[in-house]
Design brief:
The protein is an alpha+beta fold. The protein has one domain. It is about 40% helix and about 20% strand. The protein has helices at about 25-75, 80-85, 90-100; strands at about 110-120, 125-135, 140, 145-150, 155-160. A 3-stranded antiparallel β-sheet has the order 1-2-5, covered by helices on one side. The longest helix is centred in the N-terminal third of the chain and has 53 residues, at about 25-75. The protein is rod-shaped, with a radius of gyration of 36 Å. It starts with about 25 loop residues before the first helix and ends with a strand.
Length: about 160
């Protein structure tokens, strides 16, 4: 028996052409990075908006507390002198305004207040307290789309009857 040498030859076929998707992974990566960047910018915008709302709520709470404090001072004051002492420009009003509304550490930014006394609906003495302030670094877009500082004054109004 003869040994048969079978030599197998492997035929080389030419390399398959590259698919038409060559470089597509790079394009997908770039698009994913852009989408991620837009999402991050959106989250930053939401954070800034949330901080602004929180700041505004803090100032509203501070104004309400200051008005309540002034009402408490009026309630314990002498009914004979309460109008003279606590009307806008009165001695005790000015003291409260400087110590509570305009103080550096506890006051409101650009804070101011007015007090008016009247007789309303049969109540012998009704007081109206208006506390105003301008939020710091509050920015808005004007009609042309330009960003400018907000000059809108915020107000808190309290109306209460004294000595009831």
């Amino acid at each position: 028996m003869q040994s048969m040498n079978i030599v197998s030859h492997r035929l080389r076929t030419p390399a398959a052409p590259r698919p038409a998707q060559a470089g597509f992974t790079l394009l997908e990566s770039l698009i994913a990075i852009v989408v991620f960047a837009i999402a991050v910018l959106g989250m930053i915008g939401a954070q800034a908006s949330g901080a602004q709302v929180t700041s505004d709520a803090r100032y509203r709470t501070e104004a309400a507390a200051a008005a309540d404090e002034l009402l408490a001072r009026m309630q314990i004051a002498s009914p004979a002198t309460v109008v003279a002492d606590f009307t806008t420009g009165g001695a005790l009003f000015d003291l409260w305004l400087q110590d509570r509304v305009q103080a550096d550490a506890v006051g409101l930014p650009a804070g101011d207040a007015t007090v008016e006394f009247a007789s309303v609906a049969g109540d012998p003495l009704t007081v109206r307290i208006v506390i105003s302030w301008v939020p710091p670094r509050h920015r808005v877009r004007d009609g042309s789309g330009a960003i400018s500082a907000m000059t809108d004054t915020r107000r808190h109004v309290t109306v209460s009857a004294l000595y009831n």
